[in-house]
Structure formats: C-alpha cells, structure tokens
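# nightly structure sweep
# worker-07 picked up a monomer target from the shared queue
# config: single-sequence mode, recycle default, output format = structure tokens
# input follows
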Amino acid sequence: MREIKDLKRMERIRRIAARFRIRSLSGQEMLFLARCLAVVSVVRLALTLSSYNRVRGLITRLDARRDAGIADLRRVAWGVAAAARLVPGASCLTQALAGQYLLARQGNASKISIGIERGTGSELRAHAWLMSGNHIVLGGSINGFTHLVDHGS
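# output follows
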C-alpha cells in the first residue's frame, strides 16, 4: 500500500517538474517546440499512411545545401526529441525525418543513416540517425550497428 502511494507521489512530482520546464521556456522556444510537435506528428502520420521513400522524397525536395551551425543542430535535436516524447510511436525514423525537414527548411543539409544492430541473432533491429556533416543530430551512438545506407538532402 505504501509503495502505491509513493509511486503516485513520484508521478505527481514528475508532472509538476514537466510543467515548470515548459513554463521556463522563452516565447521563441515555446513556438519552436510547438512547431517541432507539429512536424513530428505529421511525419508520424505520413509514415503510417504512406511509404518511407515517399515521405523522404517530399522532404528532400527542399533546397538544403549549407552546413548547419552547432547551435542549429542542438536546437533541432532538443525540439524533435522533446516533441517525440509526446507523439505515440515516434520512432527513430520519425525523429530523423522530422529533424531533416526542420534543418532543410533553414537551408541546412543533412542525411539520414540507416543501420542494423550487430549480434542480435535471428532478430533484425534497424535504427536511423540524422547526421549533419560529421555530427550526429538525432539517434545516439552508431556503435554496435552495421551501416546500411545513407539518404541525403
């Protein structure tokens, strides 16, 4: 009984902390987070209703040739990761495509790398990363994965 009360109390604390983090954002950060939420949601829906190649084709139509600055990369990584926590089923591929779209809208080039996890036996586990130059924007470390393909902007 005491454990249930402690769990409920911890959940309340988490909710309050989440509210304060959102309230501590500036107006620009709130708008960017809302935009990221919209983009992640639309990409998630598009991947559900259509194919990866079709969604990727729509994103790569944007003219993106510049190298992004580290501040832009961090901002996109933060916004997409935060938004993805609120969108059910927002996989690594959803996040990579959403991040690529946001960077491309700013004219910044990026590529999506897809690989499979090594040593999983008969089970195949794929993963996607968003890369810009030599920087991993979204998707975490590439260690433990075999690279399959890159899809650039």
